[in-house]
Design brief:
The complex is a heterodimer of chains A (395) and B (528).
Chain A lengths: L1 H14 L18 E8 L5 E10 L2 E7 L9 E3 L4 E4 L1 E6 L29 H8 L2 E6 L7 E4 L1 E4 L7 E3 L4 E4 L14 H16 L5 H7 L5 E5 L2 H13 L5 E4 L6 H5 L5 E4 L8 H12 L4 E3 L9 H12 L4 H8 L1 H7 L16 E4 L10 E6 L2 E5 L6 H5 L6
Parallel strand pairs in A: 1-4, 1-5, 6-7, 11-12, 12-13, 13-14, 14-15
Antiparallel strand pairs in A: 1-2, 2-3, 5-16, 7-9, 8-11, 9-10, 16-17, 17-18
Helix pairs in contact in A: 3-4, 7-8, 8-9
Chain B lengths: L6 H16 L1 H8 L3 E8 L7 E9 L2 E6 L9 E4 L4 E4 L1 E6 L25 H9 L2 E6 L6 E10 L10 E12 L6 H52 L1 H16 L39 H6 L9 H17 L19 H10 L5 E5 L2 H14 L3 E5 L7 H6 L4 E3 L17 H7 L4 E3 L12 H8 L7 H14 L16 E4 L10 E6 L2 E5 L10
Parallel strand pairs in B: 1-4, 1-5, 6-7, 9-10, 10-11, 11-12, 12-13
Antiparallel strand pairs in B: 1-2, 2-3, 5-14, 7-8, 8-9, 14-15, 15-16
Classes of the chains: A alpha/beta (395), B alpha/beta (528).
Chain lengths: 395, 528
């Protein structure tokens, strides 16, 4: 249709942007040297105006005033848009074909989810188009200990694996109880985990478990029910570990009870039928001092699920700044990559998204995505989704 | 003590007392006070927003709206403090209030029978998010699934949480539920057949009416003839009558055309009631089996009502003896058996009710369009994941689309989806709105978020227009709700800020002029 013929033209225009004359000219260079941001998301999650980013070698060199960024060739400017750090999916299953968990043994600390990753999988392109630039890939929650998670970039050239062997994935959740191998019950699971950690403390176990038992490893624990969450937090705190909790349930008191014992909470995507208690979880954890991160669970949900959860959480009490942090800097910290991505700060990689409005507003759309300072996706170039499906008239 | 009050003074006091105690119109005005909401930004959906305005609500309606309204005495004044007022949100594809056990899934299912009017929690949560009206479908099934209703979340007198504003809002059809393409095609074929059957049913009903008229005419004529004949042979008639009674007893003789009575007249014409009313045979006894069989009594049951009369009539005729029904002459026509599905579909065929077809795949949407074209139906597409792919065809008849929940699975499966579905439809001028999806009662709350996602890429307030004015138009209730204008029903929401800002909270909701929801002071009301 119309867009098809326009697309190559627009890419051409974008790549060789003419000299900016007026303040309202649109310029989306392929590899800008600076960004003139009418609005941007600051490291504390707030929306600020008139910012300028100087980029160099794929990183953010410094953050200035917009006025400091001379207009001209190679400067990215989208009037009215909001520049945000690339969104980080705190709990993703992207890029995995089939099951990524070996369920024969429920304690499998040596497994690596990165071994089963297909980086060219469609899931990553889908996530990218929603503004997600980094994803923490987790194994399915079918084992008590499922091995390590991984952190990957969803696009761009060069190395996309940020962390090959990341935080240890644990699950104290119904989905972990299998019929044909231990543990088959919650009490059995707790006993098994306690035994494993106690032995590991003596040094007699896989090194990852040893580290965990010494309180020197990061762990992400999936716990659906509040009791699971509380039990997991208490057990791990005995071993000096303060895990990140992936919590799907809803118990008003939980936040206060686990506040001192967990380092962060990942909230899976809300659905339209999530109860108002669940929706208020985010604000309760935040009020109790526990940082909250949102997840899209790609491919279970599309990338927009994260922003939708964030918006719903705000409607039910979470602060807007905390919500924006929950899409960016907090998942970066959970994934251990906050020195590389997740905020618009000097020294970090230039992974950012051009949104048409505040990312918390669901009518805002992704206009362009940059990874390491290079444009890897833009609405015009990739056309509208319709053009993906409609017959194209070949020139 | 009273003696000291002089009479002239006492009477006015008494009058005042009587006046205040018994003068009902004044008391009524005091207690049904008008409400004025002032100091608000009013998004009317009927023109430009009023940046700083007031609304006067009288009874269930908006009496006045503008920069300044004339508030009557004793009206309740509410200072909105800069809040934004919008029309109440409309969930155009909802399951709000519908009990999970509603089941059904055929033409006789009615959404209204499955709604729990006392299910306060879901209604309250929906109000908290600004929802005031919902279209509730019957839920479940394939093919023709029943009748939907439009309800409003008006608090009722005896505790019910809502009222019906359109009891029969649409005939619901589902083309989407089955994964298997073959079964979906079969469903389409079955629905087409059902519509054809409805048309045949209508024809047979019309034929029946014609035939019945004809029959009654002929009956009248015969009666006249018989009366003439009776006038001639009076005694014989009496004798026959006596025998006629005997004839009833002889009714067990099968297949005997003529009961053994002396019959001077060879003419086999029936003898109608002397009082002239051809159908008044209620006094007759049980009909003769043979007579009934011969006279084509027709099936029992539904048709039995008339069939019974038929039989009785035969008896009467037989009783009189002389005038016999000729088998070929004057058979009482048989009323077609009542067909609930056809009756329902006829309402759609006659343009009384729109047809809401749930269809996601473009092929199914096209099938629905063809169905509507062939049977001249008012079509609304529900779901419409792939509607954006066939938007030009939808535009031809301005077929509206009610989209569902907007966050999908990333691995698309066999249904293609677009995040800019709404923008595409709008570009092609296809009317559309968003519903919560008709699956769970609790989902109605989130309609504002779904609409914002669906309107990605459009103007800032497009989502709000879709949920108010456009939804009302598609549901056929625009005269009542969906806009804030003088005379419209007072369905409105006060938002603490811009409704599209998730940090905004709903402060108050009025439905039909009644205060249906007030946010508690703790702000969000979460954790209750």
């Amino acid at each position: 249709m119309r867009m098809v013929h326009a697309a190559p033209l627009l890419i051409a225009v974008g790549a060789f942007a003419p000299v900016l004359r007026a303040d309202d000219e649109v310029s989306l260079p392929l590899a800008p040297k600076a960004v003139a941001a009418d609005r941007y998301v600051a490291p504390d999650g707030s929306l600020r105006t008139d910012g300028g980013l100087l980029l160099s070698s794929g990183k953010i060199k410094s953050v200035r005033e917009k006025a400091d960024v001379a207009s001209g060739k190679g400067v990215l400017h989208m009037p009215g848009a909001v520049i945000s750090p690339g969104l980080i999916d705190a709990y993703s299953f992207a890029g995995v074909l089939g099951s990524n968990v070996e369920t024969a043994y429920s304690i499998d600390p040596g497994a690596n989810v990165s071994a089963g990753l297909d980086l060219s999988h469609d899931d990553f392109a889908a996530a990218l188009s929603a503004g997600i630039t980094t994803a923490l890939i987790a194994p399915a929650a079918n084992n008590l200990v499922s091995g390590s998670t991984a952190v990957v970039r969803t696009g761009g050239d060069g190395s996309r694996i940020l962390v090959e062997e990341g935080a240890l994935a644990l699950a104290l959740d119904e989905s972990m109880l299998e019929r044909d191998r231990a543990p088959t019950s919650r009490t059995g699971a707790m006993a098994m985990l306690r035994r494993a950690l106690s032995q590991a403390k003596e040094g007699d176990a896989h090194e990852r478990l040893v580290k965990l038992a010494m309180g020197r490893a990061d762990a992400i624990v999936v716990a659906g029910d509040a009791m699971d969450a509380l039990s997991a937090a208490m057990l791990l705190s005995e071993f000096g570990s303060s895990p990140t909790l992936v919590h799907t349930g809803e118990r008003p008191a939980l936040a206060a009870d686990v506040a001192g014992m967990v380092s962060a909470v990942i909230l899976p995507p809300y659905s339209p039928s999530s109860s108002h208690l669940q929706l208020a979880e985010a604000s309760r954890f935040s009020a109790a001092g526990v940082p909250v991160a949102f997840a899209a669970n790609v491919p279970v949900r599309d990338g927009r699920a994260m922003r939708r959860s964030a918006a719903m959480a705000v409607r039910f009490g979470l602060g807007a700044n905390e919500a924006r942090s929950g899409l960016t800097s907090i998942p970066a910290a959970i994934a251990g990559v906050d020195d590389r991505v997740g905020s618009l700060r000097a020294g970090l990689d230039a992974d950012f998204v051009v949104f048409s409005d505040d990312p918390l507003k669901l009518s805002a759309e992704v206009l362009a995505v940059y990874i390491r300072g290079v444009r890897v996706w833009s609405k015009d170039a990739h056309g509208t989704a319709a053009s993906d499906f409609e017959w194209k008239v070949m020139p | 003590m009273f003696r000291s009050i002089s009479s002239p003074l006492a009477s006015p006091l008494v009058l005042v007392f009587l006046f205040s105690a018994f003068e009902s119109p004044v008391r009524a005005q005091l207690f049904d006070r008008a409400t004025v909401i002032e100091n608000a930004r009013i998004v009317t959906m009927a023109g430009e927003p009023v940046e700083k305005g007031e609304i006067l609500i009288k009874g269930s309606r908006i009496a006045e709206i503008g920069a300044d309204v004339k508030a009557p005495l004793f009206s309740k004044r509410i200072d909105a403090k800069g809040a934004t007022i919008t029309p109440g949100l409309i969930d155009a594809w909802s399951a709000l209030g519908r009990l999970p056990t509603s089941g059904g899934g055929d033409a006789t299912s009615r959404a209204i029978d499955a709604i729990d009017w006392y299910g306060r929690d879901d209604f309250r949560e929906a109000l908290r998010q600004g929802v005031t009206t919902a279209y509730v479908g019957p839920g479940g099934g394939q093919g023709v699934t029943g009748v939907a209703s439009v309800i409003q979340l008006v608090p009722g007198e005896s505790g019910e949480a809502g009222t019906v504003i359109r009891e029969d809002a649409a005939v619901c059809v589902d083309f989407a539920s089955d994964e298997s393409p073959i079964r979906r095609l079969k469903t389409v074929a079955e629905v087409r057949k059902a519509f054809r059957t409805a048309l045949e049913y209508r024809t047979s009903k019309e034929d029946y009416e014609e035939d019945l008229e004809e029959y009654l005419e002929k009956l009248k004529e015969r009666r006249k003839e018989n009366e003439k004949e009776d006038a001639k042979g009076g005694e014989e008639k009496k004798g026959d009558k006596a025998d006629g009674k005997g004839g009833e007893k002889k009714g067990d003789k099968p297949k005997e055309e003529t009961p053994p009575k002396p019959k001077p007249e060879p003419e086999p014409t029936p003898k109608p009631e002397p009082d002239g009313d051809a159908l008044n045979f209620l006094s007759t006894e049980a009909s003769s089996g043979s007579g009934a069989a011969l006279r084509g009594r027709g099936p029992r049951g539904e048709g039995g009502r008339d069939g019974g009369k038929n039989g009785k009539k035969d008896t009467k005729g037989k009783k009189d003896g002389e005038k016999k029904d000729d088998e070929d002459d004057l058979e009482k026509p048989v009323k077609p058996k009542y067909d609930a599905t056809s009756e329902l579909l006829l309402r759609a065929l006659h343009g009384e009710l729109p047809v809401r077809v749930r269809a996601d795949r473009s092929a199914d949407i096209v099938n629905a369009l063809e169905l509507a074209e062939d049977f001249d139906l008012d079509l609304v597409i529900e779901g419409g994941h792939e509607a954006f792919l066939v938007r030009d065809q939808l535009e031809e008849n301005k077929t509206p689309v009610v989209l569902g929940p907007q966050v999908h699975a990333a691995r698309r499966g066999s249904i293609r989806q677009s995040e800019r579905a709404g923008a595409f439809l709008s570009d092609a001028r296809v009317p559309w709105t968003v519903g919560s999806g008709g699956r769970g009662s609790a989902e109605a709350r989130m309609i504002a978020f779904e609409a914002q996602l669906a309107a990605a890429g459009m103007d800032d307030d497009a989502w709000l227009t879709k949920l108010t004015r456009d939804a009302a138009a598609i549901l056929g209730v625009l005269g009542k709700t969906g806009r804030l204008t003088r005379g419209a029903q007072a369905d409105l929401v006060l938002w603490s800020g811009d409704p599209s800002d998730p940090a905004s909270k709903v402060q108050r909701v009025y439905v039909a002029g009644k205060l249906a929801f007030v946010a508690d002071d703790s702000g969000q009301g979460n954790g209750n």
